[in-house]
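Q: Given only this backbone (192 positions), what sequence would you predict?
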C-alpha cells in the first residue's frame, strides 16, 4: 500500500466528495474509476516526462469532486431550447414531441445547446464547482418529468405561487412556485 499523504486535515462536511490534491493525478486512478484510452493511429508521440493527455481530459471519470479554482462556488446553468409536446394539432393528427427550433445552416440549435452544456458542466465540476443544471445533463434513456403540481412533488416551508399569465399548462394550474432567499434553509421542494 502506498501512502499518498500523511497530513490530516480538519474534518469538512465536503471531505468525502473532494478529490485529494495530488500533483501526479495518474497515481491515484484505479481501474474502478479510470477508463482505458484506446490507442489511435493519429496519436501524437509521447515525450519523455510529459503527462499523458488522458490525465487532463475534461471528461475524465472521477469518484470524487476535484478541487479547483471554482471550489466553494455554485454554477447555475441551462441549455436553453429543447423538446416540447405539441398538442395544438388538427385531428386526426395526434399530439407529438418536437424541437423548438428549426434547421439553420444544416444544424439544429436545440441539440448544440445541450451538447455544449454537457462539456461546460464537466469543465465546471472538474474545476471544483457545485453544478446546478436546470435541465438534465447527458443523454437520458428514461427521462421522468415532474411538474410542481404533480402528486410526486412535495413542498416544505414557506412557498409562494406564481401568478404569471404566460403559461402552457392546464387551466387553474400554478405556473411555478418560489421561495424567498434566506441565508439558512427555510423551504425545500422534493421531486420523487
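A: Predicted residues:
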Amino acid at each position: 500500500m502506498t501512502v499518498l499523504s500523511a497530513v490530516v486535515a480538519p474534518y469538512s462536511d465536503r471531505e468525502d466528495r473532494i478529490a485529494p490534491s495530488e500533483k501526479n493525478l495518474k497515481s491515484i486512478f484505479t481501474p474502478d474509476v479510470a477508463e482505458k484510452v484506446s490507442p489511435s493511429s493519429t496519436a501524437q508521440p509521447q515525450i519523455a516526462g510529459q503527462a499523458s493527455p488522458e490525465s487532463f481530459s475534461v471528461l475524465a471519470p472521477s469518484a470524487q469532486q476535484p478541487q479547483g479554482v471554482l471550489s466553494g462556488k455554485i454554477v447555475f446553468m441551462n441549455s436553453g431550447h429543447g423538446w416540447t409536446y405539441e398538442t395544438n394539432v388538427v385531428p386526426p393528427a395526434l399530439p407529438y414531441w418536437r424541437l423548438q427550433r428549426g434547421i439553420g445552416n444544416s444544424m439544429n440549435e436545440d441539440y448544440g445547446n445541450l451538447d455544449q452544456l454537457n462539456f461546460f458542466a464537466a469543465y465546471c465540476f472538474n474545476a471544483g464547482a457545485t453544478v446546478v443544471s436546470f435541465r438534465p445533463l447527458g443523454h437520458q434513456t428514461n427521462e421522468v418529468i415532474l411538474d410542481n403540481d404533480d402528486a410526486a412533488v412535495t413542498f416544505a416551508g414557506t412557498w409562494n405561487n406564481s401568478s404569471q399569465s404566460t403559461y402552457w399548462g392546464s387551466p387553474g394550474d400554478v405556473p411555478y412556485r418560489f421561495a424567498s432567499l434566506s441565508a439558512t434553509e427555510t423551504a425545500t421542494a422534493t421531486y420523487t
